[in-house]
Amino acid sequence: MGIFDPETEPVNRVLCFGAHPDDLDFGASGTVAAWTAAGVQVEYCIMTDGDAGGFDTRTAAEITATRHAEQRAAAALVGVQTVHFLGEADGFLEPNHRVMQQVVKLIRTLRPDVVVAMHPERNWERIQRSHPDHLACGEAVTRAIYPAVENPFSYPELLEAGLEAYKLPWLWLYGAPAERENHRVEITQVFDLKLSALRQHLSQHPDVPAMERYVRAQSADQGAKAGLAPGALAEAFHVVAVNAADTIAGF
Hints:
By secondary structure, the chain is α/β, with parallel strands linked by helices. It contains 8 helices and 7 strands; from the N terminus they run βααβαβαβααββααβ. Strands 3-2-1-4-5-7-6 form a 7-stranded mixed sheet, with helices on both faces. Strand 2, helix 3 and strand 3 form a beta-alpha-beta unit. Helix 4 crosses helix 5. The longest helix has 18 residues. It is globular. The chain starts with 12 loop residues before the first strand and ends in a 10-residue tail after the last strand. Keywords: Zinc. InterPro entries: GlcNAc_PI_deacetylase-related, LmbE-like_dom_sf. It comes from Paeniglutamicibacter sulfureus. This is LmbE family N-acetylglucosaminyl deacetylase.
């Protein structure tokens, strides 16, 4: 299958999925900021309300409202104006057909060049990256992309509503196990925007300086792995060609 070449692959529209508010800001917001600065249309979809996250005694409804507002503010800082919320319960996300149908609907509506999602494989080096909701997000999106998005017989009610089947070119997965990472994006020039986006999620970060040191260290490590200049920063992805030039009859 093809390897993504940023010099030759057109990226005009991108749809990004996260399990919780702040997942995309940790995993991909630097890349998103670079895309939007270049004129790419990017939309977010957050699958759960993040209602089980936080460090105080607010009700689930109050936490949900806070986390929606935090995510919208964070998205706006990196140039994303549209944020979809699927409303699944935090900690209970499953790659079921209710979720997958909504994923298919969004992809067929936007018809993006790239879908960004969490990785469906468990990362044993840092298990916190593999929250069950993270794995479910990646699995739901991956299952939806093939074959449902491009199969007109999947979820026929969507076709009846005018949402025709669509062959997605690329799937970019973040939070991947290190052995799966095969593409890195330099984010040095937009790293401050990434940090600003993360700072919007104050309900989740009791120690903001520690969070920022961690994110900078991780980004510097990826910059080094990418062979960039000393001090340069990057984000890593497992990029999968869904429909490449050599894809025939769905294979």
